[in-house]
Amino acid sequence: MPGPSSGRQARRPLSVRATRPAKRRGANARVRLTVGRLLLVSALLLAGIKLVQVQGFEAAELSLKAQQQRATPQDIPAERGAILDRNGNQLAFSIEARALYAVPKLMRKNWAEQLEKDPSIGSFEDHAKAIGAAIQQVLGTEVDGQRTDEQTMTEKLLRDTTYIELVDNVEPTKAAAIRKQFNEIGSEFRAVRVYPNGKLASNIVGAANWRKDMTPGATHGQLGLESSQDNLLAGRNGRRVVDTIQGGDVVIPGADRDRELEPATPGKSLELTLDIDTQYVVQNMVTDYTAKSGAKSGSAVVLDSKTGEILAMANDKTFDPANFGKATEDEKRNIAVTSVYEPGSVNKIITAAGAIEDGLFKPDEVLTVPGRIQVADRWIRDAWPHGDLDMTFTGVFGKSSNVGTLMAAQKLGEERYADLLRKFGLGKRTGSGLTGEEAGLVPPLNQWSGSTFGNLPIGQGLSMTLLQMTGMYQAMANDGLRIPPRIIRAEVDGNGSRKETERPEAVRVVSPETAKTVREMFRSVVQDAPGQTGTGAAAALSGYQIAGKTGTAQQIDPDGRYSSTDYWITFAGILPADNPRYVVGIMLDGPTGTPFSSSAAPLFHDIASYLAQRYQVPLSAEQSPLITLTP
Amino acid sequence: MTAPARAGGTSPNPRPRPEKPRERALKSVPAPAGSPRSRSASTERAYARRAQRAQNLRGGSVAAPRRKPGPVAKAPFVVMVMAMLIVGLATIMWLSTQAAADSYKLQEAHNQATQLSLRVEQLRQEVALAESPTKLAEAAAKLGLVLAGDPAKLKQLPDGTVEVYGKPSAVEAPAPPPSATTAPSTTAPTTGQSATPPPGEQQQTPTDTQAQQPPAVPGG
């Protein structure tokens, strides 16, 4: 019977017949085989169990541990958006740089260890000197005002400290060259904000710098638009994980060793309404004229009359944004929006516009203007003494008669006047987007005292910023439609798509006809004719009709009274009056002691002349006719 | 694995190797040669198997041709599998080497791209700096150029006559004349006003009264 049983039966006789030692040997083999088999099986089982344990139950934990050992999370720095002018010229942008640092204590220790093994390498001091020499060779003796000569570098490396920053804002290629020679020198990412125009428009653009105190370090705005628009400009950092060798920051190369978790979102760029060329010229003119007039400060604003866009806004004092820490408070301020003043006669345009709009006066209507007028308990006079004087309504403004203006204002009424103040945008921030903007102070109607209405029409007793004042004239230039001025024209994102910022809502101040009439009336201010000369003849620009208004307001003395020596000298004008393109506002704070101290009209002339050339403004079709001021 | 060792004897296709211990065991049994002792049935079968084996070892003519095609048919398959394994292994090694090499190349390309973008950035910075009006003004001043100031304007009337607005005036030469370059540079802006030659023929014609009123130069 064949089969396993027969095999077993065949064996029995063999074992029976085998000699004793043979039999013992066979039993031994069987035991050994069984034990060996058991051992192997149990080893396999154990291995299997461990496998299941490692691969199944502990898998997540272990892989996490492994990742922690080799993976180093890193930030992908987001590129900060640039600030551009209306023609795409860069006013501020960021470039990549490196900061070089060293760990002197650790370097010294490592060097000592190596020195034991190989005494020929020389002392650590020599090594530090060699590094210093290499740095000087690559970077020169100065980077961005930081000394990088051999001596300074060596001295820093020999300091008894754990960490020291050697030099900031190094070009990445140069940093790499140094690190190639001495890999113990560390390099860290930095972004440097570059302001190619330096001081130009710095009180508008502001300044940003690298903030080490923030985690992660990044460029953040400190002043101006850089600060107020920081969220928009900064973008959002991305995250990635790289595999590094243990205990070091050397990234292991390989495609799968660099995993981007989240891409960086670059910041948006801002396109401003400024024209940097105009800004440059206006800036120079304002600085020169402020110095010439002996004023404490001066500023000028140029608006596009159709859009209310700020083409130029210059203050006599600016600062270097690359070194803003050293700037004084005065230099950092953008006085065109942060400083309020009493506008003086420039404010008379409100009365003129109201009176024409309401049909109270006609431009050529003749008024008999006395030498003074009583408002409540106060007597208000003209700037020049006169008795009863016949003046056209135009002449009241051409000659800047306070008495004539108040006569018109009283006809207009307090309520209507207060309504006009509001429509002209006074007492309220313009919302231009500039930082630190002031609202100015306009006393509310219910708080007016008897004499208030004797002050406001002639531009005293209320305050405004230069931008607000220029905005009033923009309304007249734009046919009675006031468009609040703005500085940010568009946002441009990383892939170049441009989004215009929403246009501010326009405010209808007066009818187009009124605006035209007022512009024609205010041409008389710059008129220069025998006996019919306006107060701002120096503002005239040959070939163009100019409408404008001079202003002189008394400043307030520390004792709370109007000063008889300190004035705010203002001017606001429209170029050209017959087909307005640009509106210019000028303010000089306390000019004194020179022939230029009494008027800002010459500065208007200079700015208008430049604007006419720069934007190729066509000559006026007709020149201003001779307007009768005093019949 | 262990089964044939034990059941080898019963295998219908007995092979010499697994049988070996059994053979030895059988040999140790005293030879039965013609022994009158009656054998059990199993012993009988063992003897029969032994005889069969002996015949087989001697080169039995029946089994030999049947077994021979076995190894011959399997050899190419094994060789093929080995070749495939070797080729596969080689391919894998080659590919992984390539991948590693490529990743280094990629890294290098990345580095190069970074370098180039940094260079672009640097150049952009230089251009932006050179383009700034401040720098342009400095460069122009170095060339001896001066601002044109307040130009006079010409206006052609429908009847063909030309009116001049403003008073053309030569600008002042820059204060520190940089040697030879001064002479040509001062004349350049004056002619640049383009108003200088026309007034030559137009000056006599009565110009607009207003045009002459404002001072040509501010502060004059």
Shape call of chain A: elongated
Quick check: average pLDDT of chain B?
68
* Overall number of strands of chain B: 2
Query: Are there runs of chain B of 5+ residues with pLDDT below 50, and where?
Result: 1-16, 180-220
What is the gyration radius of chain B calculated from CA atoms?
58 Å
Structural class of chain A: alpha+beta
- pLDDT averaged over residues of chain A: 89
Helical amount of chain A = 25-40%
Major sheet attributes of chain A:
7 strands, mixed
Most residues in contact, chain pair and counts:
A-B, 53 and 49 residues
What Rg of chain A is obtained from the alpha carbons, in whole angstroms? 41 Å
The fraction of residues assigned to DSSP E strands of chain B is under 5%
Largest sheet of chain B: 2 strands, antiparallel
Percent of residues in helices of chain B comes to 55-70%
- Strand order in the sheet with the most strands of chain B: 1-2
H-E order of chain B: HHHHHHEEHHH
State the end-to-end CA separation of chain B. Answer: 119 Å
- Strand fraction of chain A: 15-25%
**What is the overall shape of chain B?**
rod-shaped
Tally of individual helices of chain B: 9
Report on this structure.
The complex is a heterodimer of chains A (631) and B (220). With 631 residues, chain A is α+β, with helices and mostly antiparallel strands. Helix content of chain A is 36%, strand content 22%. Chain A contains 21 helices and 25 strands. In chain A, the strands form 8 sheets. In chain A, strands 2, 3, 6, 7, 12, 20 and 21 form a 7-stranded mixed sheet that branches. A 5-stranded antiparallel sheet of chain A has the order 14-13-25-24-23, with helices on both faces. Chain A has a 3-stranded antiparallel sheet with strand order 1-10-11. The termini of chain A are far apart. Chain B has 220 residues and is mostly helical. Helix content of chain B is 60%, strand content 4%. Chain B has helices at residues 3-7, 16-27, 41-57, 63-67, 69-131, 133-142, 182-192, 197-202, 209-212, and strands at residues 153-156, 162-165. In chain B, strands 1-2 form a two-stranded antiparallel ribbon. In chain B, a hairpin with a 5-residue loop joins strand 1 and strand 2 (162-165). Chain B is rod-shaped. The model of chain B is unreliable at 1-16 and 180-220 (pLDDT under 50). At the A-B interface, helix 1, strand 3, helix 11 and helix 21 of A face helix 3, helix 5 and helix 6 of B.
